[in-house]
Amino acid sequence: MVKKGERNSKLESRPRTVVTTDGEVDDMNSVIRFLLYSNEVNLEGIVLTSSMYHYAGNEKKGVKPYRWTGTRWLMNIIDAYEEAYPNLIKHADGYPEPSYIRKVTKIGNISEAGEMDTVTEGSEFLKDLFLSNDNRDLYVQTWGGTNTTARSLKSIEEEYEGTKDWESIKKTVSDKLVIYIILNQDESYSSYIAEYWPDIRIINDQSNFWHFAYAWKLHADEVNRKLQGGWNYEHIKNGHGRLLDLYALMGDGNFIEGEHPEEQRGSEEYLKNNPHYDRYDFISEGDSPSFFYLINNGLRSMEDPSYGGWGGRFGAVNEKLYKNTVLDFDIYTNRYEAEYSLMRWFDDIQSDFAARADWVVAHDYKDANHHPTLTVKEGLDLEVERGEEVTLHAIGSDPDGDSLTYSWWRYFEADTYEDSKAPPLIVEQKLEGGMQLGLHRRLNRGEVTNSIALSGSDTDTVTLTIPKDAKTGDTIHLIAEVKDDGIHELKRYQRVILTVR
What we know:
Strand content: 15-25%
Number of domains: 2
CATH class of the largest domain: Alpha Beta
Number of strands: 20
Largest sheet: 8 strands, mixed
Structural class: alpha/beta
CATH topology of the largest domain: Inosine-uridine Nucleoside N-ribohydrolase, Chain A
Number of helices: 14
Helix content: 25-40%
């Protein structure tokens, strides 16, 4: 076993990101959660935009508002974050000051779905950000339409096309941007960005997000246990300050200004008309996977979208475009599903959220739980031989002095050793109403899901033997987990990638 070269230091720093949002109730929930994770990123801005589902209207053009929730909601959430800020900074470093967040919050193209003709404050803000001298990757989270992003790129094109600097500027901007799109919520990506800026990297979640959104009730109960009303009320809603008071749950009394009556999910009427929901049940955070992807929790998903992590796992359509084309094996349904690459993390995601909700109201560090740390003694990128016995040691610590337990498992769907790869028999699954819920296939008779035995998988030391039929260049992905015994049993991970020489 030989340790490979160190990982790119660029991936060790907090990623730069800007959020674009259309203001649906699930966007509001995502903003609240995102602010609790804003210490994990370099927040460059928040820009309000439109989508096919929400727009402000244009009186001059005779376009009426459609499900438009206004702009004040965003500042209301930032105001509530300001109340939480003095406590948050006691529990973790890196939270941005509320005044800074207000400064970088802008209004973009909001009048119509896909409208990108108008130069707006938000589009100019993005333009300046895209043209800045900071050439580190910039993740553009797209929770609504891409139209404000498209307008900013169009402004760059109009200013520089035909000049001697155009090709250099276009390449620099393209190399910098990673656009994480939740659905395609207007036509501006396909009609403009994809055609005129084809070298921008795109992660396009077309289906998995629904499973942390309005389709969550379709899951097995084992996946959903921390999306239920009782858990949400106890750990998120009740007694967690104004910021979490604003977090919308089923039947909680929240009224969303501008939303259709039938979409007022906080109302008694909604609960009456939708009896499959209980009070305080999860509503939706369909946009949150775009920032889950950015959290450096040890899963290394930003190194390659096909690795998988809290934001899901993606397959390469080409070297610039990733989509929901890969399958993980759902242990509860006994089938391969694209969505399980996201669903498998729900308990961990929700426990982590609950801990941060406690930070909002915990005045002293000792009054809340905090994440353990984890390293692997041998390193994270190792070269191995066929037939070699490999032993790895996990080393954890906990800032609260909590007891720690360890586990190791093979993320066999993400690695390239061919003992268990699912044949390309893929069935498209849909719901009535046109929601594409991903790809799935049943486990074939006799099919192996994981043939590599792990000895000591529930300890801090694991041993395995590299298969003799492994090919040169094959990878085996091992996930080490450490969990504390604090109130929310927080986890940290490390992904070890073994490459066959």
